[in-house]
Design goal:
The chain has 330 residues and is an alpha+beta fold. Helices cover 39% and strands 25% of the residues. It has ten helices and twelve strands. The chain has a seven-stranded mixed sheet. Strands 1-2-3-5-4 form a five-stranded mixed sheet. The longest helix has 31 residues.
């Protein structure tokens, strides 16, 4: 019931956001800085374009900067404040990218059952970023992950977990080491004395072993249907969007499209991949390491259908989630 209520609230909120006449000066400036088409705002738009700019203020500086923007009545001043949030978000992305790269470069092999890493805040382990970094490591390794920022005598960390491992219950198994902790099954935060870091790492790893959860090195995808590129069109994409709003408990349907020979492969912003599948653009976020496979193989593609709206035009595009090398059916 709660999930249905939440989806209803989100649907009503999205409808209000798409009514540009009701927007405050500050909200208009934020949408402009987020490069959002006000007539086409989805849950993904909020999650990947609007919310990161709002959150960046609290992560790196002062959350009250967002309140100042929303209360601003002067359009020019609002644009300046929104631009500052956009710049902060760019700074946040840069810090995040560097820290994720550092963590992967020093990751032990084989991977532990519960990844726990830490570092000094003055060396880039910013306490406002550790939760995002934990999510990135969790997504790439399919392991519950804790990332900890050390500042002076204080260490604060964030956990991002996987199905089958409750983040708070994992921390509960080490409660004698932790002055404070809390959260929910997927994410949690905690503080830990510096002298207890190694003990915490061992305790969390042991907790996963005791739960007897099978931790594969990859996420299992829930493919809802197979189709051909020729089956995909704007009507199909619009029908899918009527099933929304989409989120954690109501994901966008994932399709398997077989026998694709990618064309016009390129790298965007040094981390994302873009290529052509038939007449459609395909975007694969944070997948640069798969560039060689995309360039040289016929693939099967697991993807979501998306609609790109630009200059009053609508165009279907695909959002890749994974690929495999195509094997012709006998």
């Amino acid at each position: 019931l709660a999930t249905i209520e939440n989806r209803s609230i989100v649907a009503l909120g999205l409808a209000e956001l798409q009514d540009m006449r009701s927007h405050s000066v500050g909200l208009r400036a934020l949408l402009e800085a987020s490069r959002v088409n006000g007539a086409w705002i989805t849950a993904s738009t909020i999650g990947y374009q609007i919310a990161p700019r709002i959150n960046a203020a609290g992560r790196l500086r002062r959350a009250t900067e967002v309140i100042e923007l929303m209360n601003e009545k002067d359009a020019q001043k609002a644009r300046v404040l929104a631009k500052a949030l956009d710049d902060l978000n760019s700074e946040r992305r840069d810090i995040e990218r560097k820290l994720v790269q550092h963590c992967f470069s020093s990751m032990p092999a084989p991977l532990p059952n519960f990844i726990t890493v830490w570092g000094e805040e003055e060396e880039g382990w910013h306490r406002g970023i550790v939760g995002i970094v934990a999510s990135r490591l969790r997504d790439k390794t399919n392991r519950p992950t804790a990332v900890i920022s050390i500042c002076g005598n204080e260490a604060r960390g964030s956990v991002r977990s996987i199905p089958g491992i409750h983040a708070v219950e994992a921390l509960e198994s080490a409660k004698d080491l932790l002055p404070t902790f809390g959260g929910h099954k997927a994410a949690a935060g905690f503080s830990v004395p510096l002298g207890k870091l190694e003990a915490l790492r061992e305790r969390l790893d042991r907790y996963v072993l005791e739960q007897q959860v099978q931790t594969a090195s990859f996420e299992q995808l829930d493919i809802r249907a197979s189709c051909k590129l020729s089956d995909i069109n704007l009507n199909m994409a619009q029908a899918f969007f009527k099933l929304g709003p989409f989120g954690k408990d109501n994901p966008m349907p994932l399709l398997c499209i077989k026998g694709i020979r990618p064309r016009s492969v390129s790298v965007l912003k040094n981390s994302h991949i873009k290529f052509k599948a038939g007449d459609f653009d395909v975007l694969w976020w944070n997948a640069k390491e798969h560039l060689q496979d995309i360039q040289s193989q016929t693939i099967d593609l697991a993807a979501e259908i998306d609609i790109n709206r630009w200059n009053q035009r609508m165009r279907v595009q695909l959002i890749a989630r994974d690929i495999r090398i195509h094997s012709p059916e006998p």
